[in-house]
Design goal:
Blueprint: H1 2-30, E1 46-52, E2 66-73, E3 79-82, E4 94-97, H2 102-138
Antiparallel strand pairs: 1-2, 3-4
Helix pairs in contact: 1-2
Length: 139
Amino acid sequence: MSDLFSLFNTSASALTAQSVRLNTVASNLANASTAAPTPEEAYKAKQVLFQTVLDQEDPDGAAMPVRVTGIVDSEAEPFPAYEPNHPQANEEGYVFRPAISVVEEMANMMSASRSYEANVEVMSTSRQLLQRTLQIGQS
């Protein structure tokens, strides 16, 4: 029985982690075309760092919850774009745009969404198994 509760804990932690990942990807997509007058002021894409957590109550490691350990800025340099009429353009007529690949971010969003859905399904199936187990005890 504790294995089922451990499974709920693991799936719940994964749901939380994937939710953070989805929000981070959404932020990256929302800022993909923003401009800044200097490279230092340009938006830096964010990436979520995950870590599995050893459950002390589960020494076999069958269910290992995941947690977000941080959100880090990308090391990719923003790229200059010559747009002399842009209000953010510097003296040379350049603006700096973040090095964000919309295609990669969309793939990341699809992956996070599918992971989220898979964990919802695990929790739903576990709940059904638990209900059936309780029904057997009632017979």
